[in-house]
From TrEMBL, chains A, B:
SUPFAM superfamilies: RibA-like. This is GTP cyclohydrolase II. Signal peptide: none annotated. Residues 242-380 form the GTP cyclohydrolase II domain. GO terms for biological process: riboflavin biosynthetic process. Residues 1-31 are annotated as: Disordered. The keyword GTP-binding applies. It comes from the Bacteria. It comes from Rhodovastum atsumiense. Residues 16-203 form the GTP cyclohydrolase N-terminal domain.
Length: 423, 423
């Protein structure tokens, strides 16, 4: 314990405990046996702050939004003791349990029971434990202009079940917060757990000393964005070997996904993925869009825009043969998405085979296959969906080994040119 | 210093320092005089991890993406000593300096010099300080189906400058990472700095003990999402009193902004804001879209989906008169966006008057006006842009005092019904 030097001459009224897990007085949280098939044996993730001593995780709920919650408490706008009333919040459609949930090391970056806490840990909740969902499942209708256009062009036909004539598609959608089981994360990257904990602590500028001081806490809820999943077709078909699965794993690109920036193929490819998902659902399968909050290859948007400038201004202009180099100069690596963790969500959905993977990226394909999922077909983006300024990206990616029927050579690479900054 | 208990029997080869700011051996970072008009007096934000002793901030760059960087280092994929090569990355258009940058307390949640570090701190960079941009400015062409539709419907006319006949709009776009000056943040919320630091530390489960132990460090780079700004028209016109400004401040809603979910008006209102921005730019003004990463009113998407379920399942179904209550039951508050900080970006852009504010929200209007910006007109979303299932949201917001010509009474509120979960 430590009494802080006041910054404005005032002393706080009680000492600040420099650990979030004081060990005295409060009941200890149930132990976690990660991967146990029975939720009672697995144990609930307790990461709330209403009873600090009862926690069994480092960090807290809501990913990076935990900071807004903390600010709201500091500003006196939120009672820190508030506990959610979870009445009527249970999943709008059941998902799982599936055998993958208890296969060793299969899922390490989300809590497979995260949407079912009300059911799986009913007893603990009744005892008064503050257990919160880390996954939520709801239903929605979505409407995208590209899908209306696909109907108009005759590529999709309304069936009034998956898709209606107005272009509205029915979905089950899922929000997932990250829950990292640190021993499994370390294994996934082939490093020891101490190296992982040390890296996470030191290379964030000293976030969460308990990563170091509390090796008994094996769970970490990192303050990062999570994933959203959009399911087309009846989710009850998931986990059945005969169900055909179409899937796009999409990493957030706000500039394209929302604003339609023409320097990349992100939104067009996403829309094409949704079209394939709707088609598959109409044929009795399930379409799966995974949307990961990994802006700018998880380098963030500031780095992304710095790289855009460097690409546009380099000698010879924006060229496919220097596409990755410029990112490496600025960021130190061309990519920080760490796709090693990405297949977890597919296993959570009970997927063992993807019939149509709507992605050209080997950085996605390889970890999916390495994680034990069979991929039957890879669906490229149709050429007519590639925006004007995105040819540089496409050629660079093809040359870097993205799946393609045609690998451009050095001469072609030098040819694909992007727009100049002033244009 | 402390040698951690190894989790796998191995001892790390060097002790782990449980502070990110060891005070010995390395040069001290230049002091920060926040709000100083001259950047040399203000001092650079030094938050990199390549020379820990030289830092003058808590936390590090890239917001929540700092975790991915840390993981990449831990996994051996990134050299922790990498320094960005910032060649050719300078802003594609100059922004500022504006008088607001040095008005006391005007800007406390971003670094106004963040995009200009190469210029403003050239001397320090030459001395070897690792100073990184927290803002990046680039140019782009964007294409949104709603804008093409506005041209088709005759609401927008292409001018080949701001907008071409194919529906491509020219923008200057800006990515901004959060940089919090803690004394100013505390003032903004009317609390003392110790309360703020304590809340941020304790209510995140113990993130960054230096918030408590190092009151001399007044800057905090929180691991949250930042903002993107899209500017329509020549940004050189910013800061001139005669320039007409259209503006929408939009808070991220992935389900609507990207996927077109019909339960809210987010994307339709955003698209309408862009239409107004293009129109204003064509008339010689500047259109400003601010896109804040505040998913689900900064409660995060898991909470948002839990609330959707509770709304749809409550007795009487989804109704406007219970719209905010369901969020409060789950989250403890109806909203956590803390709009008190939101006007900072407008002041950074040199804005003193908004001619057309494309928002009905008093939660946005009031802090903007309270911060000293004049708002001349408020532009509601046209009725024909409100999606099928979003009437509940609209009526609830109107009744809660969102700007509107028509405030619905209790009978009307009880009438607006949303779709059921199974539908």
């Amino acid at each position: 314990m430590l009494t802080p030097r006041g910054t404005n001459g005032r002393r706080p009224t009680r000492p600040i405990v420099l650990t979030s897990h004081p060990r005295t007085g409060t009941p200890q949280a149930p132990p976690i046996t990660w991967g146990a098939a029975d939720p009672a044996s697995r144990g609930p993730v307790v990461a709330t702050l209403t009873s600090p001593g009862a926690r069994n995780a480092v960090g807290t709920h809501a990913g990076s939004y935990s900071l807004y919650r903390a600010l709201a408490v500091a500003a006196g706008q939120l009672d820190p003791g508030h506990r959610p009333d979870l009445t009527n919040t249970a999943p709008a459609a059941p998902i799982g349990p599936f055998p993958q949930w208890s296969e060793p090391g299969r899922i390490v970056s989300l809590d497979p029971w995260g949407h079912m806490v009300g059911e799986a840990f009913a007893g603990r909740l009744a005892e008064g434990w503050d257990i919160r969902p880390t996954i939520a499942v709801t239903r929605a209708h979505i409407h995208m202009p590209e899908i209306t256009e696909a109907i108009r062009a005759g590529r999709l036909a309304p069936d009034d079940e998956v898709l209606n004539a107005a272009g509205d598609a029915r979905v089950t959608k899922v929000a997932i917060e990250p829950v990292w089981w640190l021993p499994g994360i370390a294994d996934r990257f082939g490093i020891d757990e101490t190296t992982l904990r040390r890296g996470l602590f030191e290379q964030t500028g000293g976030m969460f000393p308990e990563l170091i001081t509390r090796p008994d806490l094996q769970l970490f809820l990192p303050p990062i964005g999570g994933a959203s999943v959009y399911l087309f077709g009846d989710p009850a078909r998931l986990g059945r070997p005969q169900t055909r699965i179409a899937c796009r794993v999409h990493d957030e690109c706000n500039g394209s996904d929302v604003f339609g920036s023409d320097i990349c193929t992100c939104r067009p490819y996403l829309a094409h993925g949704i079209e394939v998902c709707i088609e598959t659902a109409q044929q009795g399968g399930v379409g799966v869009i995974v949307y990961n909050r990994k802006e700018g290859r998880a380098l963030g948007e500031v780095t992304k825009f710095l790289v855009y400038n460097a690409r546009k201004r380099q000698q010879g202009g924006d060229r496919a043969d220097a596409y990755f180099t410029r990112t490496e100069c600025v960021a130190g690596v061309a990519d920080m998405r760490l796709q090693e963790l990405m297949p977890d969500v597919l296993h959570w959905l009970g997927i063992t085979r993807i019939d149509r993977l709507v992605s050209m990226s080997n950085m996605k394909f390889e970890p999916i296959v390495a994680s034990g999922i069979t991929v039957l077909e890879r669906v490229p983006i149709p050429d007519d969906l590639i925006p004007a300024d995105a040819s540089v990206e496409m050629d660079a990616k093809r040359a870097a080994g993205y799946f393609t029927a045609h690998v451009p050579d050095a001469a072609e690479l030098a040819q694909a040119k992007g727009r100049e900054l002033g244009a």
